[in-house]
Design goal:
- By secondary structure, the protein is an alpha+beta fold.
- The chain is built from six helices and five strands.
- Strands 1-5-4-3-2 form a five-stranded mixed sheet.
- A hairpin with a 2-residue loop joins strand 3 and strand 4.
- It is rod-shaped.
- The chain starts with a helix and ends with a helix.
- The protein binds protoporphyrin IX containing FE.
- The site of protoporphyrin IX containing FE has 21 residues, from helix 3, helix 4 and helix 5.
Length: 146
């Protein structure tokens, strides 16, 4: 029983028990022609060779993206849920972990913007407190001299 679990972890298996295949961007890039076309969408790799002619949006757009990351263009078109489900038929593996640098960069940006936001939210009330303090001092001095 425990042996089975161990094997699953080591092999990084999917729910159906098969191994996940990882591909580098370099490997994927070689599949960039109409007779052999792969795409990366959301870090998953698809062999769309047999789908090219069937694509409702035309073969040409797919050929332009073949061998590359088509996530942005796929999302820009606003594909339907049906289109997203169709993707599963062509799934062959995952983008290699070493080639996923974009995602970690995005995380850094998010952290930075959140940090700067919390800075301004603290800074504005601090200025308000200082201003009120100055006004209060001025008011006290005025009332003393009169
Ligand atoms: C394997 C990946 C893809 C699948 C399974 C797919 C599937 C589909 C499907 C089913 C449609 C019909 C409309 C819908 O249901 O949303 C469609 C339309 C379209 N697709 Fe794709 N597509 C893929 C990749 C791409 C990529 C990478 C691009 C852009 C470079 C693209 C551009 C278009 C365009 C321009 C249309 C026509 C939209 C329209 O006329 O309203 N598709 N696609």
């Amino acid at each position: 029983m425990s042996k089975e679990t161990d094997t699953k972890v080591v092999n990084n298996s999917t729910s159906d028990g098969s191994n996940v295949q990882y591909y580098t961007r370099q490997e994927i890039q070689a599949h960039n022609m109409s007779g052999d076309a792969w795409l990366i969408i959301h870090e998953k790799v698809y062999d769309i060779t047999t789908f090219m002619e069937e694509h409702p949006g035309g073969e040409e757009v797919l050929l332009e993206q073949a061998g590359a990351d088509a996530t942005e263009s796929f999302e820009d078109v606003g594909h339907s849920t049906d289109a997203r489900e169709m993707l599963q038929q062509y799934y062959i593996g995952e983008l290699h972990m070493d080639d996923r640098e974009k995602e970690s960069k995005k995380e850094v940006y998010v952290t930075t913007s959140e940090e700067s936001r919390s800075w301004t939210t603290l800074f504005i009330p601090a200025i308000a407190v200082v201003l009120v303090g100055i006004m209060y001092r001025y008011y006290m001095m005025e009332s003393k001299s009169s």
